[in-house]
Amino acid sequence: MLGGSFSMNEVYRTIPHRPPFLFVDEVIEINAEAALTKRTVRSDEPHFEGHYPGNPIMPGVLLCEAVFQTGAIYLVKKLTGSGKTPEGVTPILSRIKEAKFKNMVKPGETLTIEARFKESLGQFHFMRGTVKRSDGKLALTLDFTLALVKEQE
Questions:
Q1: Are strands 124-132 and 89-101 parallel, antiparallel or unpaired?
Q2: CATH label of the domain that carries residue 76
Q3: DSSP assignment string, 10-55
Q4: What is the dihedral of CA 39, 149, 29, 78, to 10 degrees?
Q5: Domains in the chain, number
Q6: Averaged in consecutive runs of 10 residues, what is the pLDDT profile of the chain (153 residues)?
Q7: Interval 109-139: pLDDT, tens
Q8: Domain that holds residue 12
Q9: Strands of 89-101's sheet in order across
Q10: Which terminus of the chain, N or C, has less C-beta within 10 A?
C-alpha cells in the first residue's frame, strides 16, 4: 500500500514545507501504521544563534514540528494509497496533547522520528509521535491530531 523510503522530491510533492522550515531529511519507511523519518541537527541552523548561545539546544517546538511533518507525510501517503485523498486539501495541525520532553537534543544528533496512526474521526486523524536521539534515548513523546483542510485560493 505505502511502500518504503522515497526521495526528498517526493516529500516536496507530499507536504508544503520547505527549508529552512522542513525538519525531515529522509523518509526511512512508511507502512500501514506509521512513518519513520530522520533528521540530522546541524550547528549552522539559524535558531541556534539565539537559543542558548554557547550551549545550543534544539527548541522543543521544532522537535514537535518534525513529528507533525512526519505525520503529514504519513497521512497524505496513506490516503493517496487508499484513493481517499480529496484534491485541494492540506493536513493541518489541530491539537497537541501530552507533549513530554525527555532529553535535550544538541547539534550533531541524528534523530529518528516516528508518527504512528491511532484513529480517524471525520476529517480528524489522531496520531502518536516520538523522537529518538542518536543514542536511542527518547527526546520527545506526544499525541497530536491533524485535520484535512481545504486549501485557500
A1: unpaired
A2: 3.10.129.10
A3: HHHHH----TTS---SEEEEE-SSEEEEEEEPPTT-GGGGTSSTTS
A4: 180
A5: 1
A6: 69 90 95 96 94 94 98 91 67 96 98 98 96 98 94 68
A7: 999 999 999 999 999 999 999 999 999 999 9
A8: 4-150
A9: 4-6, 26-30, 34-40, 110-121, 124-132, 138-150, 89-101
A10: C
